[in-house]
Write a structure and sequence with these properties.
Rossmann fold; 13 helices; 10 strands; globular
Length: 312
């Protein structure tokens, strides 16, 4: 698959009436870097994460059957599909694993979707979702490995380029890889795109090392959003051509980034949403002097009790 800038521009025109154009905060001399740091505040998106972009693009690009839509999700994708379905008057059933954050499950339910516990892990929820789709004909909205999802997520890059000074590098957290696939396709050959994964959940890092998708073990504080076991062929085919490399961060650095965002900016970020910043503050990514670095803050669906534990 080749995803073009024209594809992403078309997706943006399609979803713009339904999404928030999230702001950009351009800082000088922040997070230990003397050059420009540009924060894209995508956690302010509807349903608390970038996922609403892909959900709306998929719903608006496909005929929706009477059975409605279905999705498997650790939380953010389900919340986004539920929100988009509600706004467009479509029935939604979301399959979540037992490990899902209660805060994220509550967001899904708040948007009127039916929530089904689909097993212990994400893979179990995906299997339950697939069975339901096969039985009912519902439209399955995949969290990352689908063209309409990726082009929707790529609109983050389109907006960011318009609202920030020219960037040299952008840091993007990676779960399944749909977000970075879209953003890297937007900036391909013009801006260095660096993925960020937890050391304990490195599906894209492993795929790039192995020369193809491989299964990985998943164990991280960010597992409910960055916990994919395998990127799949579609994500690998795009990222192997467009992503510079993947930086790995420790869970401790992710927690530190969450605490810093709350202390200094009053931003309540979930672990996955703070992972890209963790790469900068821990020096898992080392920018050059005066390099213009973009950092994507992509999700805000955090349990406040857990955030309080980090910031006391």
């Amino acid at each position: 698959m080749t995803m073009t800038r024209a594809d992403i521009e078309a997706a943006h025109a399609r979803i713009a009436p339904h999404i928030r154009r999230t702001p950009v905060m351009n800082l000088g001399g922040a997070f230990g870097h003397e050059g420009l740091v540009s924060l894209k505040l995508e956690f302010l998106q509807h349903a608390g994460s970038f996922k609403s972009r892909g959900a709306f693009n998929t719903l608006l690009s496909n005929p929706v059957p009477a059975a409605g839509v279905a999705a498997a999700s650790g939380g953010n994708h389900g919340a986004a599909v539920a929100y988009a379905a509600k706004q467009l008057g479509v029935k939604a059933r979301i399959f979540v694993p037992e490990i899902s954050s209660p805060a994220k499950v509550a967001v899904i339910r708040s948007h009127g979707a039916e929530v089904v516990i689909g097993g212990a892990r994400y893979a179990d929820a995906q299997e339950a979702c697939d069975r339901y789709v096969a039985e009912t004909g519902a439209l399955r909205i995949h969290p990352f490995a689908a063209e309409s999802t990726m082009t929707g997520q790529g609109t983050v890059g389109l907006e960011w380029e318009q609202d920030a000074p020219a960037l040299d590098t952008v840091l993007v957290a990676v779960g399944g890889g749909g977000l970075i696939s879209g953003i890297a396709s937007w900036w391909a050959g013009r801006v260095k795109v660096v993925g960020v994964e937890p050391e304990g959940s490195r599906a894209l890092h492993a795929a790039l090392q192995a020369g193809g998708p491989v299964d990985v073990d998943v164990d991280s504080v960010a597992v409910d959003s960055l916990g994919a076991r395998n990127t799949g062929d579609l994500v690998y085919s795009i990222c192997s051509q467009t992503v510079d490399h993947v930086a790995l961060v420790k869970d401790e650095a992710i927690r530190e980034a969450q605490a810093l965002l709350w202390r200094d900016y009053r931003i309540a970020s979930e672990p996955g949403g703070a992972a890209a910043l963790a790469a900068l503050i821990s020096r898992a990514y080392m920018p050059r002097l005066n390099e213009r670095v973009g950092v994507l803050l992509c999700g805000a669906n955090v349990e406040l009790t857990k955030l309080a534990e980090l910031t006391h």
